[in-house]
Each structure stands twice: as structure tokens, then as C-alpha cells.
Amino acid sequence: MATTASSGRSGRVSLSPCLLVSLSALATGCNLPGTPKPEHRPEYPEQVAKFEQLFNKNCRGCHGQDGKMGPAPPLNDALFRAGISEKEIRTVLTSCRKGTLMPAFLKENGGLLTAAQIDIMVNELKGIPYQVVQEGEGETVKLRVTQDEKGKSPAWGTSGELPRGAPPYHPPAGETGDKDRGVKVFARACASCHGEDGKAGAGQGSESEGKGQKSLRINDPAFLTLLSDQALRRLIITGRPDLGMPDYAGSKDRGGDFKPLSSPDVADLVALLGYWRVGGVVNGR
Fold first, then answer.
1. What is the C-alpha to C-alpha distance for residues 142 and 138, in angstroms, rounded to an integer?
2. Which member of 1, 11, 145, 196 has the lowest number of beta carbons within 10 Å of its beta carbon?
């Protein structure tokens, strides 16, 4: 504050040290002492633009560290990233995946992410370089995301294309599965690990193989209820490489004469698993 000091006839005004510092800061355009630097100021949740932060907070709990080894199917998977479309990823993140525990993540639908943050996730999962532009200042900053081949490289790299002959992510129009054909496909593609009736548990392999592998009991309505038909199709195509489950073409534990599964084969397996989901019995099993 300014104080008037008695100094003879001069009538000089003396200024306090604090006011001198403040006026000096204003004159030079500098921040006042103790003012946080821009990089140290708090970041509002809707302004987070780093994929790692978004993934760790919203996805890692189910899909695992770095998108692998979680209870839910891996997202950091070459076949999955190649097969699923941008539109599909955006729809699932925005609205949820029906028939599974996957929730909606868009704020307007009860989630925690803005539309721009979902754009970041879509580009990262699909392997598309992008730019993030901040518009506004302070707490009014909004993000705008654009695809840009010279922009930020996705953390998991770019995604390739599905191998020739690989079953498509969605069944082709008009393709329907048959549970009875599915029994035969299951016998050559799945029974060696899951048992001929799908009821092998940990440490129980197929009786015919006698390999004693640790496997998952999949003929279980409680388990299958957690997975939609599309989720089952995806797992049959991509496998769970992080847990040792082969993909549609993998021959591990399937015999030397195993041939890759076709799209109709996958549809037949989904039909069989869907029947087991409601407690159905096929051919005495």
C-alpha cells in the first residue's frame, strides 16, 4: 500500500516493498511471485489428451496393462485392430457393447470421456496418426482431434490388414451358423483344450488327448452369458494370444492336419456356444 511520509517540503510518497514488486511485475508482464507456471497448473479431466492416461483410467482394469493380459479380450492385438472398423470402435466406446459388461464411455451416455477423447481412443486403437488441437484458454480449453499422417504416432503402432482368407470381424450378410455343424468344428478346433463337451476345467484336457492342459470350462451358461455372439466371434477369430489360445489359423494343440477356420466355421461355433449359453444339449452333450 502507498503511505505518505513527512519529508519536509518535498511531500514525497514512499511505496512499500510489496507494492513495488507488484508494480514491477505488472510493468514487465511477469507473473506475480508464487503464481504457478502454466505446465504446473491443474489439468481438467476433459482436457486430458494423452492416450496412456485415458487408457489407464478407463480401460486397463478390464483389458490389462498395455492392452493385454486382462480379464476382458486384449485390445492390443494385431488381428483385432486389423479387423474392427473405426466406426465399430467409436460406436462401442460411445454407446457400449450390448450383451457384455462393456459400458458406454461418452459423457452424455454416462461415461467419463468427451467426444474428442473418444476420437483419440479410436485413432490409437485403429493405428491412425492424428493431431490434437487445444482451443480456448484455462478451464475453457476444448480439444479438437484430426487425423494427420504427419501427426502423433499411435502408441501401439499402426494396424495392418487382415490376412487373406481370414474370417471377417462381422459375419457376411446371409451367413447363419448351425449348432450341429458346430459340434464337428468344435471337435477339431477346440476340444483338445476345452474337452469334447466344452466342460474341461483347469488341469483337465480332452480325454482323447490326455494332455492335461489348463483350460477354461466354456460350456457354462454363467460364463457365456457375459459374452455376446459378436464377442464370441471375435474371440474365435483372434484367439487370446496373451493367454495361449490360438487364433482361427493357429495349429497349436490342434493336430498337424488342422486347417484354418473359415467364416462359416466361426458362425457354426458361435451357434453352438449360443446354444450352450441357454443350457442347450447337442448330440447328447
1. 10
2. 1
Q: Are 90 and 106 in contact (CB under 8 A)?
A: no
Please list the alpha-helical segments (H only) found in the chain: 17-28, 51-58, 60-63, 78-83, 86-95, 115-126, 179-189, 191-194, 221-224, 229-238, 263-277
Write the single-letter amino acid at 82.
A
- pLDDT tens digits, 150-209: 999 999 999 999 999 999 999 999 999 999 999 999 999 999 999 989 998 544 444 434
Closest CA to 119 of 108, 109, 106: 106
Domains with residue ranges and CATH for the chain: 45-147 (1.10.760.10), 179-277 (1.10.760.10)
pTM of the model: 0.79
Which residue is associated with the grid cell 446371409?
174
Q: Which grid cell sits at 156?
A: 501401439
**How far is residue 212's CA from residue 225's CA, in Å, rounded to a whole number?**
27
Distance (Å, whole) CA 106 – CA 176: 33
Partnered with residue 143 across adjacent β-strands are: 134
Instruction: Answer whether 146's CB lies under 8 Å from 130's CB.
Output: yes
SS3 category, 74: coil
Q: Are 173 and 262 in contact (CB under 8 A)?
A: no
Inter-CA distances, 159 with 129, 153, 170, Å: 11, 11, 18
| E strands, 114-252, in order | 130-135, 142-147
CB 151 within 8 A of CB 129: yes
